[in-house]
UniProtKB/TrEMBL annotation:
Lipoprotein keyword on record: yes
The name this protein goes by in its record: glucan endo-1,3-beta-D-glucosidase
Organism (species): Escallonia herrerae
Source domain of life: Eukaryota
UniProt keyword terms in alphabetical order: Cell membrane, Disulfide bond, Glycoprotein, Glycosidase, GPI-anchor, Hydrolase, Lipoprotein, Membrane, Plant defense, Signal
Catalytic activity, reaction form: Hydrolysis of (1->3)-beta-D-glucosidic linkages in (1->3)-beta-D-glucans
Subcellular location: Cell membrane
Family to which the UniProt record says this protein belongs: Belongs to the glycosyl hydrolase 17 family.
Region feature (Disordered): 361-382
Keyword Signal: yes
C-alpha cells in the first residue's frame, strides 16, 4: 500500500542491505520522575522498607509531606533526592518570626543534609485553597526559610518553593489564555515569581487531568487525557496543537507566568496521578485508566521534550502517590491513587525508568468508568492491543480529499523532514503515481521518523494509523520492519536525533 509494486516486480527485486550507518548528532536528557510518599494510612511498611522499595524500582526522587525523622534518617546515604514540606499550619509562625525559621531549618533540614539529599523545601501546599486563610503568610515564610538556608550555607543546594493547585488560575482554556486569579496577582504571584527568579527556584504545580476529565467527559476525549493516540486539540490563541490534557494544563500555567513577564521560571509538577478505583459517579477512575495515564506519562517525561509552548523545558514530575492510603477522607478515589499496595506489590505493572520502558506498551484496553471509548484504529482488522509486534503504520485516507492530502504531503516532504526521494519521478516508489499513494509514503516516513509519537499521524485529518503491515512494502517499509525494535526504542527513549544513511544494491 505504501509503495505498490506488481508482485512480478517484487519477485525480481533482490534487496541487499549494503551498510547501515547511524549518525547521532545530539543527545538530550529527558525529564525526571519522582513520587509522593503520603502516609495517611495505618498499614504502610517501615521507612527502611520504603527506601528499599524506591531503590529497587529505580525511583531516585521522593517528596514527603513533613520532616519525619524516621523517614529522613532512612533516606540517609540512599542517593535519593528529597523534597520536604513545611506544613500550612506552621506558615504563620515561620512568617512572623525569623528565629522560628532558623530553628525549623536547623532541626529539620541542616542536621540531615547532605547525607540525606534534601534538594527542595516546599513551603506549604496548595495554600490558596487552605480554609485557614494562610495565603498572606506564604511569601514572608518562604523568604524567612531562604534566609535560614543562607545562615546555614545551604541556599546554593536547597531551593524553596510552594506547590499551587490549578485552581489558582482564573483561565486555563485555551492554554494560551492562561492567567492567574486577579486577586492573587499583586499580593502573591508577582512577589512569588520574583522570589523564584532571584533564588533560581522552580514554580511547583499540582496538575490532575483526571479531575478535568471527570467533570467534562462529554467533551474531553479519554484518549486525550491518557496520552493515547488522538487527533489533538488546536489552541485558537496560538495555533499550537495539543495531544494531551496534561501538556495543555501545564502550558496554561506557563502562559499565566508569561503574561506577568516571568518566562524564565522553570516548573516542577509536584503532584499528578490517576485513581485506580472510584465511586460510581467518579467517571474514568479505573485500574486500566490509571495504568495508561501513569505509564504513558512516565514515557512522555523520561523520553524528553517539553510542552508545545516550551518545547525545550524538560519536566520533573512527581507521581501521586506511592501507596494507597486507607485513612484518607473523601470519595473512594482518594484512597486509590497508589502505585503500590501497602504489601509493596504494584497496583498495576508500569516501568519507572528508561530501561524499563524498553518492554513497556500501553495495553490500550477499552475505556472503563467513562462515557467515551477510545476510537478503534482503522486497518488490519484489529486494534493496537492486538498488534503483537507493537508496531503501527500511518497511511493516507482516501476520504480526506485532494486538498488535505496535498497539504499533508507538502508538509511531510517539506517542513516535516520526511524522506520523499523514493517517490520522485523515476524512483523506486514513484508508481503508482497517485496522490494517495505518495501521501501514504510521506505520511509514514514522517510518522516513523517521529518514533510514532502521539499526534504525528494526523495531517489535518488526512491520515490514520493501521496496526497490520500493508500487503506489499517499499524498501523503506521493509527496512523499517526489520530494524530491531528494542534498539529503536532505546534510541527513542534517549531522545537521540538519528539520521540513517542507507545504500541499496539491486540485482535482477
Amino acid at each position: 500500500m505504501l509503495c505498490l509494486h506488481q508482485k512480478q516486480s517484487m519477485d525480481k527485486l533482490s534487496i541487499s542491505l549494503f551498510f547501515f550507518f547511524l549518525s547521532i548528532l545530539s543527545l538530550a536528557d529527558g525529564g525526571s520522575i519522582g513520587v509522593n510518599y503520603g502516609r495517611i494510612a495505618n498499614n504502610l511498611p517501615s521507612a527502611t522498607k520504603v527506601v528499599q522499595l524506591l531503590k529497587s524500582h529505580g525511583l531516585d526522587r521522593v517528596k514527603v509531606y513533613d520532616t519525619d525523622p524516621s523517614i529522613l534518617k532512612a533516606l540517609s546515604g540512599s542517593g535519593i533526592r528529597v523534597t520536604v514540606d513545611l506544613p500550612n499550619e506552621l506558615l504563620y509562625s515561620v512568617a512572623k518570626r525569623q528565629s522560628f525559621a532558623y530553628e525549623w531549618v536547623q532541626r529539620n533540614v541542616a542536621i540531615y543534609h547532605p547525607s540525606t539529599q534534601i534538594e527542595t523545601i516546599a513551603v506549604g501546599n496548595e495554600v490558596f485553597v487552605d480554609p485557614h486563610n494562610t495565603t498572606l503568610f506564604l511569601i514572608p515564610a518562604m523568604k524567612n526559610i531562604h534566609n535560614a538556608l543562607v545562615k546555614y550555607k545551604l541556599h546554593s543546594t536547597i531551593k524553596v518553593s510552594s506547590p499551587i493547585a490549578l485552581s489558582a488560575l482564573q483561565n486555563s482554556y485555551p492554554s494560551s489564555a492562561g492567567s492567574f486569579r486577579p486577586e492573587l496577582v499583586e499580593s502573591v504571584f508577582k512577589p512569588l515569581l520574583e522570589f523564584l527568579r532571584q533564588t533560581g527556584s522552580p514554580l511547583m504545580v499540582n496538575a490532575y487531568p483526571f479531575f478535568a476529565y471527570e467533570s467534562n467527559s462529554d467533551v474531553i476525549s479519554l484518549d486525550y487525557a491518557l496520552f493515547r493516540e488522538n487527533p489533538g486539540v488546536v489552541d485558537a490563541g496560538n495555533g499550537l496543537r495539543y495531544f494531551s490534557l496534561f501538556d495543555a494544563q501545564i502550558d496554561a500555567v506557563f502562559a499565566a507566568m508569561s503574561a506577568l513577564k516571568y518566562n524564565d521560571i522553570s516548573m516542577v509538577v509536584t503532584e499528578t496521578g490517576w485513581p485506580s478505583k472510584g465511586d460510581g459517579n467518579e467517571i474514568g477512575a479505573s485500574l486500566d485508566n490509571a495504568a495508561a495515564y501513569n505509564g504513558n506519562l512516565i514515557r512522555r517525561v523520561l523520553t524528553g521534550g517539553g510542552t508545545p509552548l516550551r518545547p525545550k523545558a524538560d519536566l520533573t514530575v512527581y507521581l501521586f502517590a506511592l501507596f494507597n492510603e486507607n485513612k484518607k477522607n473523601g470519595p473512594t478515589s482518594e484512597r486509590n491513587y497508589g502505585l503500590f499496595y501497602p504489601s509493596e506489590q504494584k497496583v498495576y505493572d508500569i516501568p519507572f525508568t528508561v530501561e524499563g520502558l524498553k518492554g513497556y506498551r500501553d495495553r490500550q484496553s477499552p475505556a472503563t468508568g467513562g462515557s467515551r471509548v477510545p476510537t478503534p484504529v482503522r486497518g488490519g482488522g484489529g486494534n493496537l492491543s492486538e498488534n503483537v509486534s507493537g508496531r503501527t503504520w500511518c497511511v493516507a485516507s482516501g476520504e480526506a480529499g485532494k486538498e488535505k492530502l496535498q497539504a499533508g504531503l507538502d508538509y511531510a516532504c517539506g517542513e516535516g523532514g520526511a524522506d520523499c526521494h523514493l517517490i520522485q519521478p523515476g524512483s523506486t516508489c514513484y508508481d503508482p503515481n497517485t496522490l494517495e499513494a505518495h501521501a501514504s509514503f510521506a505520511f509514514n516516513s514522517y510518522y516513523q521518523r517521529k518514533s510514532r509519537a502521539i499526534g504525528t499521524c494526523y495531517f489535518g485529518g488526512a491520515a490514520y494509523i493501521v496496526t497490520q503491515p500493508p500487503s506489499t512494502y517499499s524498501i523503506i517499509s521493509w527496512l523499517d520492519l526489520h530494524i530491531d525494535y528494542h534498539l529503536r526504542l532505546i534510541l527513542w527513549s534517549l531522545k537521540q536525533t538519528i539520521f540513517i544513511s542507507i545504500v541499496y544494491v539491486y540485482g535482477l
